[in-house]
Amino acid sequence: MATNRTFTMIKPDGVENGHIGGILNMITEGGFRIVAMKLTRLTVADAKAFYAVHAERPFYGELVDFMTRGPIVAAILEKENAVEDFRTLIGATNPANAAEGTIRKKYATSMGENAVHGSDSDENAAIESAFHFAGREMF
Ligand code: ADP
């Protein structure tokens, strides 16, 4: 059964390029309610753990450097069928393949620097949310 929450990050490129407001606007216009949100920064250990599934990939080091180079916005979003609908809203990993109207189509600059993260399963959404937020920070 699909849960009604997902986890997102506006990645360092999105923050650096001044797109926090534009991305949050697309999220709320897309029907998602912000349950929790903060400006924070991943440590190298955080980023390595978060992307451990990609540890053997050639881009892993570059990805860890990118994700730790500046602040991110971490947030929990609520909507019916949140995980799947948010993956649709963000678009394909490579912005060249992202559909019109998606966040990555508008704000991503490359396959690596693609502006936003969206959890890929309900299980990962719960793990990623719990990593960043205490219960009293969720509303
Ligand atoms: P998604 O974020 O769309 O779920 P993945 O889980 O496959 O995509 O990859 C995680 C992140 O790793 C991507 O969002 C992107 O920042 C980076 N990444 C994935 N593939 C590549 C690649 N071929 N080159 C550089 N960075 C990549």
TrEMBL record:
Q: Which PROSITE patterns match?
A: NDPK_LIKE (PS51374)
Primary location: cytoplasm
Annotated Gene Ontology cellular components are:
cytoplasm
Q: Provide a Gene Ontology MF annotation, just one.
A: nucleoside diphosphate kinase activity
Where is the protein found, in the record's own terms? Cytoplasm
* EC numbers, comma separated: 2.7.4.6
Q: List the catalytic residues.
A: H117
The protein's UniProt keywords, in alphabetical order, are: ATP-binding, Cytoplasm, Kinase, Magnesium, Metal-binding, Nucleotide metabolism, Nucleotide-binding, Phosphoprotein, Transferase
Look up keyword Phosphoprotein and say if it applies. yes
Q: Which reaction does it catalyse?
A: a ribonucleoside 5'-diphosphate + ATP = a ribonucleoside 5'-triphosphate + ADP; a 2'-deoxyribonucleoside 5'-diphosphate + ATP = a 2'-deoxyribonucleoside 5'-triphosphate + ADP
- Gene3D superfamilies tied to this protein: Nucleoside diphosphate kinase-like domain
Q: Which cofactor does it need?
A: Mg(2+)
The family database entries (InterPro entries) matched by this protein are listed as:
NDK-like_dom, NDK-like_dom_sf, Nucleoside_diP_kinase
Assembly mode: Homotetramer.
Q: Which family does it belong to?
A: Belongs to the NDK family.
Which function does this protein serve?
Answer: Major role in the synthesis of nucleoside triphosphates other than ATP. The ATP gamma phosphate is transferred to the NDP beta phosphate via a ping-pong mechanism, using a phosphorylated active-site intermediate.
PANTHER family given for it?
Answer: NUCLEOSIDE DIPHOSPHATE KINASE, NUCLEOSIDE DIPHOSPHATE KINASE DDB_G0292928-RELATED
Q: What is this protein called?
A: Nucleoside diphosphate kinase
